[in-house]
Amino acid sequence: MNTKIALFQFNPHVGNIHKNTQAIIEAAKTAKAQGATILLTPELALSGYPAEDLLFHEAFWQQIQAGLDLIEQIDDIVIVVGHPSRQQNQYHNSASVYFNGNRLGVYHKMLLPNESVFDEVRYFEAGVNPLVFEHNQIRFGLIICEDIWHIEPAAEAVEQGAQILLCLNASPFYLNKENERIQNVLYRIEENQVPLIYLNMVGGQDELIFDGASFAVNQDGVIAFEAEAFKEDIYYLQTEQHNQHIQIKPSTIAPKLTDEALLYQALVYALRDYVHKSGFKKICLGLSGGIDSALVLAIAADALGSDNCEVILMPSRYTADISVTDAQEMAIKMGIKHHTIAITPLFEQFKQELSTIFNGLAEDVTEENLQARIRGTLLMALSNKTGALLLATGNKSELATGYCTLYGDMNGGFAPIKDLFKTQVYALSRYRNTLSEIIPTRIIDRAPSAELRDNQTDQDSLPEYPILDAMLQAIMQENADKEQLIKQGFKAEETDKVLKLIQNSEYKRRQGAIGPKVSPRAFGKDWRMPICNGFKQ
Known about the structure:
The protein has helices at residues 17-33, 58-72, 152-159, 177-192, 259-277, 291-304, 321-334, 344-354, 365-386, 396-401, 422-435, 441-445, 465-478, 482-487, 492-504, 506-511; strands at residues 4-9, 38-40, 78-87, 90-99, 102-108, 131-135, 138-144, 164-169, 196-200, 202-205, 208-211, 215-217, 223-226, 233-242, 245-248, 283-286, 309-313, 337-340, 389-390. With 537 residues, it is α/β, with parallel strands linked by helices. Helix 1 (17-33) runs parallel beside helix 2 and helix 5 packs across helix 6. The radius of gyration is 26 Å and the shape is elongated.
């Protein structure tokens, strides 16, 4: 018998169990109205992912049970809901199958990831038994996320008679992750010769982004369906009998996006969710006339609307006139509320107050950082007064090397481009201008500068960004050491300098704002280096 399956590509709110429950109930009503007889929800849909230490609160478990009780009451549709569960003192990452007031079974995730951003072993116990349930004369095998990356869970479900596999996921995004997922699913299909439906969560959660991009593959390895990335929606698939096997009827295939389009969508989506889920309505930032703040403003306006963005231009005597002109042009073109506060008088007053303490000491980076900290203070004042979330505008290349000022330009509650190398910042700025030219071309074409002293450019202190970014990528994603970097063609002197800068800047990164992860390894949960660190290469 053919079956219509609804896939709820859901954006849950972590910890808001009542809201998540109501969303699942509404999705079930919509799916029934469309003739679906099964509704799938993502991994831990009821609680959101990751719930982390919320799992240690008794009230959390009471709300989970109340949500499950409501979902169990839904009639005339099978609901597969992802949720945390507990048995005495053991917690599980689970999925339950409900139909007409009965629980047909519960599955506990067998394989728990414990690397990169994942620490499920801290919270959950691994399951040991497969779950296969029957509906409309079709036997469905249930697995959860990490299970699909290994041979055993899928194989055990098929051994128990599963004719089609349902995989519930909260798989975080990074560039090219979708291709990795599909390739891995193809391995499982080749091994087991049954179709597989891969449903992924969507939404931003702190530094994680869930892209959705759900898909289905038939037993011949042909993709039958692909959902759009970064879109909460209900999608429908139809099973059909074909040569004694269950197949998924070919359906919509979402258009492929370029890397730049995908990255840009990810950052817009992440910022919008962080702002809304944290209870903010507006953002503010410092607009300098440089490439980083220009891109962050573009992302913010696309995420929240120009009316919900406010910026301050804060020129000093080192700020080029064209920087002020370009920043003003961008703000005006976008309809952004903007203010100009010249910081030179404040800077001179600070220096005057410090003159006795600094007597006999030459000016150095201290005075450069002082300008950044004056700006950071003004921005935090605007944030406090208006309730707007201050966005930090630093990029990954700067954070890696410490080319940023603690309590200055690092101020903020969220850093949208924290995981973008400088070369990617330029690429995304060019991409954004293909949609509508809002970033002045001169900002993209000029040599980057912090403008904290006369005639300053970034390359006074750092290697050229294409070289630096390639080196940083090798260090962070391949764990390349000094010897390996030199073998790859990087100069020994530059290699020593960059490795030292990375190590010496760890204390800064620990105190910086979080930002969305868009690479295989970002500064955050999957970069865990000791601050006090005497390791030498």
